[in-house]
Amino acid sequence: MIDYYGYITTMSWRAIIALEELELPYRAHSIVLGKGEQRSPDHLARNPFGRVPVIVDHDPSGRDGDGGRANEPVSVFESGAILLYLADKTGRLKPSDPSESADFYKWFFWVVTGYGAALGQSSEFNEEKRFRLFSSGAKYEQALYARFCDSSRAAHAELDRHLADRDYICGDYSMADIAALGSTVPYRLHGVADLSVYPHLSRWYEHLRARPAVQRALAVDRESGSVLPEYYREALFDEA
Ligand SMILES: N[C@@H](CCC(=O)N[C@@H](CS)C(=O)NCC(=O)O)C(=O)O
Questions:
Q1: Which of 1, 21, 182, 219 could bond to 213 as cystine, CB 3.0-4.6 Å?
Q2: Probe target for ligand 1 pocket from 51, 77, 82, 184, with the most ligand atoms within 8 Å of CB
Q3: Are residues 78 and 138 in the same domain?
Q4: Is 181 contained in some domain?
Q5: Tally of domains within the chain
Q6: What is the pLDDT of residues 134-188, one digit of tens each?
Q7: pLDDT tens-digit profile of 49-104?
Q8: Which residues span the domain enclosing 12?
């Protein structure tokens, strides 16, 4: 059994999509960021940086119930690490052949440290912050926000070009797609009004969003978004 601790965030979606795709037994625990639950002593024991997602695997060796020391619970934070851990645990969603691994690692780490990071910066500015920013004379902050949005759009364009002649980021459907999908869902919070300006990325996105496991994953904890402003909730969940 795996305990999953997350919230309605891009990085959490990566982890929960992987758990659903792999059909691993898990219990989902909501860590409400707005209430500061990520800084509770219990959560800090799981992740000293007080962030989500985190998983705790109670059966890391796959020998549930034998009580051996080697099977003590393992806690994993950092969404990229969680995806690689789950791929190693199951032998799925990551190539095992070294000749294919190079391509996988290249793209996986580009997604986690390049694409995901570029998108994430722009979402720091929600509508209220942007209104305050642009109704004041804060030139430096305005330029910074414009730069974050430019970087986000450049990263979308890079992934779009890469997907021009393939269905998945590298080889078959893999953890690289799952990492990128989690980041892509709230694209409207990342300076992109209409994803169809990136036709290949858009095709990939629609195809993945339709997967039953992805739909189940994105429904987890969704009701906690009811307290969010409507425009933000719509953008967060890519709703009309
Ligand atoms: N690099 C980390 C980033 C995790 C992260 O920043 N999580 C955010 C939500 S997306 C968080 O927990 N923020 C709460 C806080 O910083 O207080 C990962 O990929 O897991």
A1: 21
A2: 51
A3: no
A4: yes
A5: 2
A6: 777 778 878 888 889 999 999 999 999 999 999 999 999 999 999 999 999 999 9
A7: 999 999 999 999 886 655 555 689 999 999 999 999 999 999 999 998 888 999 99
A8: 2-90
Domain boundary among 38, 70, 90: 90
Residue 12 identity (one-letter amino acid): S
221 belongs to a structural domain: no
* Residues 165 and 199: beta-carbon distance below 8 Å: no
Say yes or no: CB of residue 38 within 6 Å of ligand 1: yes
Of 45, 70, 90, the position where a domain reaches its end is 90
Do 130 and 178 fall within a single domain? Answer: yes
Q: Tens of pLDDT along 217-229?
A: 999 999 998 888 8
* Distance of CA 97 from the midpoint of ligand 1 (Å): 32
Considering the domain architecture, whether residues 186 and 115 belong to the same structural domain is answered as yes
DSSP state for residue 53 in the 8-state scheme = -
pLDDT at residue 66 in the model: 57
For the Cβ of 123 lying below 6 angstroms from any atom of ligand 1, the answer is: no
CB atoms within 10 A of CB 120: 17
Cβ of 37 closer than 6 Å to ligand 1, yes or no, is no
How many angstroms does the Cα of residue 32 sit away from the middle of ligand 1?
A: 12
The domain that holds 142 is classified in CATH as: 1.20.1050.10
* Ligand 1 atom with the shortest distance to the CA of 39: 17
CA 99 to centroid of ligand 1, rounded, Å: 33
Bridge partners for 26 per DSSP: 2
For the record, the structure tokens of 206 come out as 């629609």
Question: Which residue is associated with the tokens 């189940």?
Answer: 216
Tokens (6 digits) for 197: 């300006």
Beta strands in the chain (DSSP E): 2-6, 26-30, 54-57, 74-77
